[in-house]
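FAQ: What does the model actually see?

It sees only this:
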Amino acid sequence: MITRLLGRWWRTAAVLAVVVAAAAGLAMWTPAPAAHASNGPLGAPSVGQNSDGRLEIFSIGPDGGLWHDWQCGALCGWSGWHSLGGNFFTNPAIGQDHAGQLHVFVVSTAGAMYHYWHNPPAAGGGWGVASLGSPAPGLTGNSPAVARNTDGHLEIFASSGDGAIWHNWQCDGCAGGWSGWFSLGGNFQIGPVVATTPGSNGENGTGAIEIFAADSNGTLWHNWQCGATCGWSGWHSLGGQVFGEPVVGRNSNGQLEVFSDGQDGLDHIWQCGALCGWSAWSSLGGPGGFAAVTQNSDGRLEVFKTALQTPQGPGNVWHAWQCGATCGWSGWNNIGGQTDPFGGIDVGRNSDGRLEAFTLGQAGSAVVHAWQCGTCVGGWSAWSSLGTPG
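And it is asked to produce this:
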């Protein structure tokens, strides 16, 4: 279901994440960053990394089509926006295969999953596209998630109209190269998400894929591959009171860490080894908003938020980072920006290790970015526009 709110197309709370509203101490439903129907504003940007280290971003344009823009080197900076066509209403999920080629998955307005892939230069380059259909209950407006198995095959996850998480994986002996849709069960409103930190490709420390989703009570659940003898573990509760779409990072020791908005800011929970399994939930504070997490070149996690409301006003981007055994986390730092507080955020890591953040400008008018800069005040560049697709 899609609802038009304040002139923008947003997914409703029935199928989307929630975020914290700082009003009377109550948690209130608000729209999540979303793609939209045709002729609406931009969808939230998603970032992937090519095999040569160049970043590439994808967004649903005002025409409902999938658009992309990529780094093209010192001589041109960014390529400018190019259309891949289609008519979509979820944000794209981006994966990288064993050869480093990008694959993009997005749900059409007709409810089918579409798969785009970048052909290697030996195959003539360019992009291919094919429909992967949908499970019988149909796909919701939740964005899909993608991970890479230890054998190099990609696997996609999506929520359906029956509340369950369904999956579909590359299969060498299958018609069209994909298994078809199979249910993992559950009854969820938020998710699915998988670990998507640089180098992990959705795998946890053992190489098994682990997925996360939240139910209507805000309880976070997870399910993981457990080998040839059991396939998948089944859903297990991690508790919590999740008010926003969770994001998952992988620590330098391979253990996963999940972040999501709670009543007191950004909450997190992490794997803590054989003795405890998972930690208790803990708050990092900070403003309510949409989050992204990535890994610095030295393995430390860094989280980013587009703030719904702060003393500096809406639209500022904030970040916090792991700062070692002596301090744990840095506390929240403002990197500014006159951004759309509902525009979502995604973060990539450049080939030289510098992080680069992407979100939407005011009123979703354009994709904007900022990057780590050793000579800049505060260590980050000013926000710069990459323009509007179409």
